[in-house]
Amino acid sequence: MNATTGIRDVIIIGSGPAGYTAALYTARAGLSPLVFGGAIFVGGSLTTTTEVENFPGFPAGVQGPELMENMRAQAEQFGAEMIDDDIVAVDLTGDVKTVTDTAGTVHRAKTVIVATGSGYRKLGLPKEDELSGRGVSWCATCDGFFFRDRDIVVVGGGDTAMEEATFLTRFARSVTVVHRRSTLRASQVMQNRAFSDDKISFAFDSEVAGLHEENGMLSGITLRDTLSGETRELAATGLFIAIGHDPRTELFKGQLNLDSEGYLTVESPSTRTSVPGIFGAGDVVDHTYRQAITAAGSGCAAALDAERYLAALT
Ligand code: FAD
Q: Which atom of ligand 1 is found nearest the CA of 18?
């Protein structure tokens, strides 16, 4: 039989900027939050990067892992409790919500803040992970600045790929958009903007077939023609992969409303989900901005929403 614990005010699932900020605010409000940070991905997406130059308060920049350790320490200082484990099952329907960890322990709370983030889709190529932050990126807003005067490839054919390509022309010498098909999925306005940019060229019916490395950095890319199978080499030293994201909402299917792409829906501008007492924050909700600061901001909003919900119960 599963062990069962007492009823908490707040449980937070996720230890990225959204989860830790929600933890800080609920801890300071005296709600003693319990945070599940994940078994292997403690600190969230920023732990997979190096320099973060766009989080306010760090004029010289800050390393991603260091920023996340600081956020955690700040929340712990006010009494947030951290368990570095995955939640594998939830029951969010009743007044008392339950979440179950990998040991089968059931934790109960009046409110749950979901801050499980989203994962960038990968190409699935050898060296892709190894070269992340070393020429390979999934976020032009985050990393474009580091690619001045470089030849860059952007993979994808949707709005995000066009937006990334157009944004990157501010820094890059050239941008090549690589797309598997002969036509783009992006909206006409985004396509027109990209087509009219002198720095952007297109490799249609093409896919990235290989990544080359020199001194630990991306040094070139092999492209394969999806129709003929022929390959050719590009001397690009930057690769931005813009083929979509997968929000981590598998656990909540059938219990919380999700949109057609699987993102958690909230009653914007609040963080209230379709179930009273459950709040959503960060990239698991956000299609659009996907930045550490916006995730932290919505984590703050979720904490305040949970606080108000709990106050109304008494
Ligand atoms: P995440 O940070 O993704 O955290 C999600 C958390 O949920 C993780 O802790 C995970 O362990 C946990 N989790 C998921 N499922 C479960 C479960 N079942 N049980 C328990 N825990 C679970 N943004 C910037 O602003 N500036 C940058 O320079 C920047 N660089 C980036 C570089 C890289 C390589 C990447 C990948 C992202 C970068 N970003 C950057 C984007 C930024 O990291 C995200 O927007 C931000 O981390 C989202 O925060 P989040 O809290 O919503 O989710």
A: 51
Q: Is the CB of 36 under 6 A from ligand 1?
A: yes
What distances in angstroms separate CA 253 from CA 139, 265, 272, one per listed residue?
27, 12, 16
Give the H/E segment covering residue 110.
strand 106-114
How many other C-beta atoms can be found within 10 angstroms of the C-beta atom of residue 79? 14
Residue whose token pair is 């801050």: 115
Q: Name the least confident of 136-140, 176-180, 225-229.
A: 136-140
Q: List alpha helices for 29-175, DSSP H.
A: 64-77, 140-143, 159-168
Active-site position among 84, 86, 139, 159: 139
Summarize pLDDT for 269-282 with one digit per residue, the tens.
999 999 999 999 99
What is residue 148's three-state secondary structure?
A: coil
CA of 150 to the centre of ligand 1 (A): 27
CA of 13 to the centre of ligand 1 (A): 12
